[in-house]
Amino acid sequence: MNEVKTPKKPMIFYYIIVLIILLLFNFLAMPSMLGLLQPRVSEVDYGTFMRMTEEKNIGYVQIQDNQIIFTDKNTENFYKTGVIDDPRRAERLYESGAKFSQQIVKEMSPFVNFLLSWVLPILIFIGIGQFISRQIMKKAGGQNSMMFGMGKSNAKIYVKSTSGIDFSDVAGEDEAKENLAEIVDYLHNPKKYSSIGASMPKGILLVGPPGTGKTMLAKAVAGESNVPFFSISGSEFVEMFVGMGASKVRDLFKQAKEKAPCIVFIDEIDAIGKKRDGQYGGNDEREQTLNQLLTEMDGFEGNNGVIILAATNRPESLDPAPLRPGRFDRRVPVELPDLKGREEILKVHAKKIKVDSNVDYSTIARMASGASGAELANIVNEAALRAVREGRAYVTQEDLEESIEVVIAGYQKKNAILSDKEKQIVSYHEIGHALAAALQTHSAPVQKITIIPRTSGALGYTMQIEDGNHYLMSKEEIENKIATLTAGRAAEEVVFGSVTTGASNDIEQATKLARAMIARYGMSEEFDMVAMENVTNQYLGGDTSLSCSAETQTKIDEKVVNIVKEQHKKSVKLLEDNRTKLDELAKYLYEKETITGEEFMNVLNAE
Ligand code: ADP
Ligand code: ZN
């Protein structure tokens, strides 16, 4: 698809340059070059010629108007000398046995001469030119093909091959698959739809966090329908050169229409479809590209078989224009997988590696709560790498569990040495979290506690697992969670009477939760159900922006502090009331460094 036609105009320059170089070449370089093709003729004086004649040491001889060319007896060396008036020369030569020849040194035929001095260099130069331009094209991937006056889209085309992806490769995401199955059915059997008069949506927008399988789903639709798949990323459209984006869109659709039915996949569509703010001096390039895209989408009739899939993880930043009916009028959410989805994704990826038969995927899925499909794929691969490192032939449960921790917290820091006091503090801190979680009935049970430092900087951590899918969280549950987060610091206070820097991450999370309670979830009496902040970035970190007056903001801050304070107090009390268990568990963890949730509960429940 990326085929490059050599445009005429710039090539003329090329040829002129080649011609100039050729002329120079002919004057300077050719004589010596041709010399290489002829025997070396050494010049000698006439005396030598006479002596060699005397000694009967001449093989061939050729007498020209102004020089004599001759060889020795064995025709090994070639000589030449000037002509001196010498009437008996021919006679003496005849007597010496020299053979007269007309062509000792062959004159090159004019044709060969022409070939060598004109055609060969031209061919060489054209070859070099082609090579260089091909190199440029390859490097640029068509990007700065401006140089050659074109704006071809570099959409990659995938025609269904044996390595094609289908729906079975995409685990979980059942709703999205169901939605897209209709497209597949349409591409298989368009008549079924057109006979009723139904037309397919022209564009479908896949919306969700990164790594949830949007690209995979688009490929799977193409794979299932057995149609070509064009893919381009929105950021590729908006490249360096002004005016290129629009022409790329044009070109992409031209190609697509030729190959219809087909799927056109535009990744990161937010790069071109961002809200147009109407300000002067905005990004003209991007707007032109977007306008061209809209024009193309409006331009083709409903049932021509080109289906456009686009993906984004910031739907809130999209311009309303592309979302209008008749354009991307269907929106398919591709969310982070739930527990069952995670388990299925793990199984799909585990098929590619050798796994122990008794691996419990459900536990792994539980531990990896909040992980995206891409992260799960990464976890499985990390586990396989670990198995290789440990010299095993298959992946075990332990490998998978360890690799979750690697993905979450980084590798174990083998040589980080904590002082004894630090190790004690970390033990108490982590047990504080775990104990608070266990004592508050609503908190998820603990999976594992460890005080082995990680490369991420964590000195230890408590891994909680969810025991099912949570769609709603009550006010009480959030408060308990805040209490659990503060319990690490609380344990330090209760036991050592001082505080450390180890709680910074806990503090950040607790504050975020408390703020959300008031500003977003309407969980305070004073503000009732008024939104004080908006999520601006739902799928990428969930950044928020405040939408209230400065006074209100001050009040919100006060309330946030109060909530966290209250929960902190609660967790201190909780730990003080269970001081013996706290000591016992901290000692146990200090000695073993890593304990499972089961061990923890055993010690907790032991009398
Ligand atoms: P996105 O386009 O949403 O950012 P991708 O489709 O590029 O995500 O997914 C990246 C990788 O993550 C895929 O190559 C695949 O290995 C893995 N992955 C993501 N979601 C799934 C899923 N639902 N099932 C199986 N693998 C998945
Ligand atoms: Zn902590």
* Cα Rg: 41 Å
How far apart the termini lie comes to: 74 Å
Return residue spans where pLDDT drops below 50 for at least 5 consecutive residues. Answer: 1-9, 31-36, 140-151, 158-162
What's the overall geometry? elongated
Structural class designation: alpha/beta
Q: Tell me the fraction of residues in β-strands, as a range.
A: 5-15%
The tally of helices reads 23
Q: Ligands bound here? A: adenosine-5'-diphosphate, zinc ion
Quick one: biggest sheet?
Answer: 6 strands, mixed
Strand order of the largest sheet: 6-8-9-10-7-11
The residue fraction in helices comes out at 40-55%
Q: Total strand count, please?
A: 16
Q: Overall pLDDT, averaged? A: 80
Structure description:
By secondary structure, the chain is an alpha/beta fold. The N terminus is likely disordered. It binds adenosine-5'-diphosphate and zinc ion. The site of adenosine-5'-diphosphate (ADP) has 17 residues, from helix 8, helix 14 and helix 16.
Short summary:
The chain has helices at 8-28, 30-35, 46-54, 89-96, 110-140, 174-188, 190-194, 214-225, 234-237, 244-259, 270-273, 284-299, 320-323, 339-350, 361-367, 373-389, 397-409, 420-439, 475-496, 504-519, 550-577, 579-592, 597-605, and strands at 41-43, 58-63, 67-72, 78-82, 99-100, 156-158, 203-207, 229-233, 262-267, 306-312, 328-333, 446-450, 461-464, 533-535, 544-546, 594-596. With 607 residues, the chain is α/β, with parallel strands linked by helices.
